[in-house]
Write a structure and sequence with these properties.
By secondary structure, this protein is α/β, with parallel strands linked by helices. The protein folds into two domains: 216 residues, P-loop containing nucleotide triphosphate hydrolases (Rossmann fold); 87 residues, 2-Layer Sandwich (Alpha-Beta Plaits), CATH 3.30.70. It has eleven helices and 14 strands. Strands 6-7-8-3-9-10 form a six-stranded mixed beta sheet, with helices on both faces. Strand 7, helix 6 and strand 8 form a beta-alpha-beta unit. Helix 3 packs across helix 4 and helix 4 crosses helix 5.
């Protein structure tokens, strides 16, 4: 459905997106997850055709976006983070105006307005000025705008940004309903948002993809791996790795940040067994000084922190 190869975008000498490749299938709800400034919005703008990449290619339904940009844009409904609404217009008049400029036949406009009003839950707001609506209702009008001409693909940039908890749940429900029939890509920096809404998560950090997995795959890992965090003085990473890797059940050892004179490690216990006692005994046999020792269970938050940590 959506294929992007080697997408790169420079702003002057600053690389915002660095050689990203995506393959998104029909009917998926995909979350583009990453910290602020990771390159999510730039990636979405390139996928919609609103921003040209410095290099790389994009094909939507096997149509090259460079060769036929108008046809590709006709397949996509796009909701930017700040929806470009006209506050002085009634929601009904605004959506009718959008329908007209999107080329919907006059005889079909009313039925499309009714459909998106029902879908997005804005019937009671249709004859009110947009400027008088709450942030949540404005976001619903923005979604209705993106859906007005029945696009095959919906691209949403931070769709719940600035909403209160009740509004967030309502927008999530609408997105999941839309996702039953459409391909949806949404960006967010909120883990719970991606977990609650998406089938698959693509994590971006510093303009690069650092993970691309189904949400069920990620959830299947969570809680099954015990992580023992260790901080040592007078220790070299290679020596510690050699000693602790010999403990039965340890599946990996990674360095976890740098403090002057202190070696910070994470010991992965993939068996799910609590290996703290065995690990502690091995440490005590050495000349290392133990500064910190605690464990945690793998969570989505932990996966996200590890993948987006700046080395």
């Amino acid at each position: 459905m959506i294929n992007a190869e080697g997408l790169t975008k420079f702003y002057g000498t600053q690389c915002a997106v660095d050689n990203i490749s995506l393959n998104i299938r029909r009917g998926e709800i995909v979350g583009l997850l990453g910290p602020n400034g990771a390159g999510k919005t730039t990636t979405l703008r390139m996928l919609t055709g609103f921003l040209m990449p410095s290099s790389g290619s994009i094909r939507i339904k096997d149509i090259d976006i460079d060769e036929n940009p108008l046809k590709v844009k006709g397949l996509i409904g796009y909701l930017p983070e700040s929806a470009p609404l006209y506050n002085e217009m009634l929601a009904y008049d605004y959506l009718k105006y959008v329908a007209e400029i999107r080329g919907i036949e006059k005889g079909h406009i009313e039925s499309r307005l009714k459909y998106v009003a029902d879908l997005c839950g804005i019937n009671e707001a249709m004859h009110k000025p947009i400027g008088t609506l709450s942030k949540g209702y404005k976001q619903r009008v923005g979604l209705a705008h993106a859906m007005i001409d029945d696009p095959e693909i919906l691209i949403l940039d931070e769709p719940t940004s600035g909403l209160d908890p009740n509004q967030i749940v309502e927008i999530r429900d609408i997105i999941r309903e839309i996702g039953k029939e459409k391909t949806v890509i949404l960006s967010t920096h909120i883990l719970s948002e991606a977990e609650a809404t998406c089938d698959r998560i693509i994590i971006i950090n510093r303009g690069r993809i650092v993970a691309d997995e189904g949400i069920d795959t990620i959830k299947g890992r969570m809680g099954k791996e015990l992580l023992v965090n260790v901080s040592l003085k007078n220790a070299l990473f290679e020596d510690v790795r050699e000693v602790l890797s010999a403990v039965s059940g340890v599946t990996g050892i990674t360095q976890n940040g740098v403090d002057p004179g202190i070696l910070k490690l994470v010991v992965h216990c993939g068996s799910g067994r609590d290996l703290r006692e065995e690990i502690y005994k091995e440490i005590k046999k050495q000349t290392w000084i133990l500064m910190e020792f605690y464990y945690e269970v793998e969570t989505l938050e932990k996966v996200f922190r590890d993948l987006t940590r700046e080395n």
